[in-house]
C-alpha cells in the first residue's frame, strides 16, 4: 500500500487558514514563479517548487478530507481537485441530498475506516490527508507516514491549526528542506 502523507501550505506560526477559513496569502507561492505547474498555466512556480511539487502531485491517488473542507469547497462540484482519482470524506453524515452517486467521493465514518478505504483505492499511490482537524486525528492515530508543509512567510496570529487540536507530542525525523520562491518545502518522516 502507498504511504499516508499529511499535507498543506501553512503560515510560519502554524495556521492553514484564518478563523473564517480563508487561506489569505498561503497559496501566493503558486503564482510567484515562471514555470507552469500544470497544463492550465494558471499556476506558475519556481523551478525548485515545480520539481518538488509536480513529483509529489503525480504520486497522489486519493485525498482524505473532513466534512468541513468538503462543505466549504462545495465538494469541488463532484470532481476531485488536481486530477486526483478519489476523495474520501471523513464524516458522520451521509452524502448531501442530490449528490451524484457516481462521483468518485466516498463518505466514511471514522479515521481508521477512511484511511483503510483510501489505501485500498490508492493501491501503491500516495494517500494525501488534508492538514487540520482530520489530519491531526490521523497523526494521533499513528497512521501518518510523512508530514509535508509548504511554509509561507506570513504570520496569521490565530486561525485553523495545521495539526488541528492534537495535544500529544509526536516525534518526527529531521526535515528535508527546499527553498522555493516565497515558500519553504518541508518534509518530515514520522517516527514509529
TrEMBL record:
Residues annotated as signal peptide: none
Domain of life from the UniProt record: Bacteria
Taxonomic lineage: Bacteria, Bacillati, Actinomycetota, Actinomycetes, Propionibacteriales
Protein's UniProt name: Dihydrofolate reductase
Limits of the Bacterial bifunctional deaminase-reductase C-terminal domain: 3-172
Pfam families: RibD_C (PF01872)
InterPro entries: DHFR-like_dom_sf, RibDG_C
Any GO BP: riboflavin biosynthetic process
GO molecular function (one): 5-amino-6-(5-phosphoribosylamino)uracil reductase activity
Species assigned in the record: Kribbella jejuensis
